[in-house]
Write a structure and sequence with these properties.
alpha/beta, 275 residues, 11 helices, 2 domains
Length: 275
């Protein structure tokens, strides 16, 4: 379906979702946040989508929240401010972090402030070598709000998160990789191909296993060991019941009986698997 501020393109079961406000550096205004809630809701159950890639139009991934439309225009409008906050949190955190399919952030340019939440919510992040990151909130009188500070505490070390939050200094894509904020940095003209290579590797794997593995890691993050052990055992039983490919049994058969699969080197062979 058409969206005002989001563009959707499909490429061999990989769906590219582009934040499409290039004249505003893809800053997130209430309309964009509403569009993204609808877009992700649609793609959750879209059989033609195996992997979702989130990127930005023009020279920016996203400059964060739109200061004029998201903040100033809503300062004295509590009802619409609440709607805007919930739409933002819904797509940047709840839907994106627990999206049932793998997600990749293709960071093509500027990534600032509020954009760190969807960046960290994506499962993978590949950045162009020209991308620039920054937490500039302190420069204009606030701190990283929403869920940004919480996400920084999970994705960056304590010292790194404090340094860039309190100084407001920008940092490069390579520095982001060193800190573990992105997985890979590639030349800008190779960003599309590098993302597609990763997406194609993911497409070879059992999608039910990928979903369960993602949910397991995200959910047990803050559990103690006893809770995590109980949860993960139940999650494993659930996967064996839900997986129509019966990947566990198939992988064991191919490795133990047929001797044609080496689990440390490649995925099991998915003959006849549902597309």
């Amino acid at each position: 379906m058409p969206y005002q501020t989001v563009k959707v393109d499909r490429e061999d079961q990989v769906t590219w979702v582009t934040l499409n406000r290039p004249e505003k550096k893809n800053a997130m205004n209430p309309q964009l946040n509403s569009d993204m809630v609808e877009c992700l809701t649609e793609l959750e159950s879209d059989d033609a989508t195996r992997v979702v890639v989130l990127t930005g139009a023009g020279d920016s991934w996203s400059a964060g929240m739109d200061l004029r439309e998201y903040f100033r225009a809503l300062d004295n409008d509590p009802s619409n401010a609440m709607k805007a906050r919930w739409a933002t949190r819904t797509w940047t955190h709840f839907k994106l972090k627990m999206f049932p399919k793998p997600t990749i952030a293709a960071v093509n340019g500027w990534c600032f402030g509020g954009a760190f939440t969807p960046l960290i919510s994506c499962d993978f992040a590949v950045a162009a070598d020209t991308a620039t990151f920054g937490l500039s909130e302190v420069n204009w009188g606030i701190f990283p709000g929403g869920l940004v500070s919480k996400d920084l505490s999970l994705a960056m070390s304590y010292r790194d998160a404090l340094y860039y939050t309190l100084t407001g200094k920008n940092f490069s894509a390579e520095r982001a990789r060193e800190m573990g904020l992105v997985n890979e940095v590639v030349p800008k003209d190779r960003l599309h191909d590098a993302v597609m290579e990763l997406a194609n590797d993911l497409k070879k794997l059992n999608p039910y296993v990928l979903r369960a593995a993602k949910e397991a890691l995200r959910t047990c993050w803050n559990m103690d060991y006893e809770q995590a052990e109980e949860y993960l055992r139940a999650k494993g039983d659930q996967l064996r019941f839900r997986d129509p490919e019966q990947g566990r049994a198939r992988g064991m058969q191919q490795f133990l009986d047929e001797k044609r699969f080496r689990p440390g080197l490649s995925p099991y062979i998915r003959e006849g698997a549902a597309s």
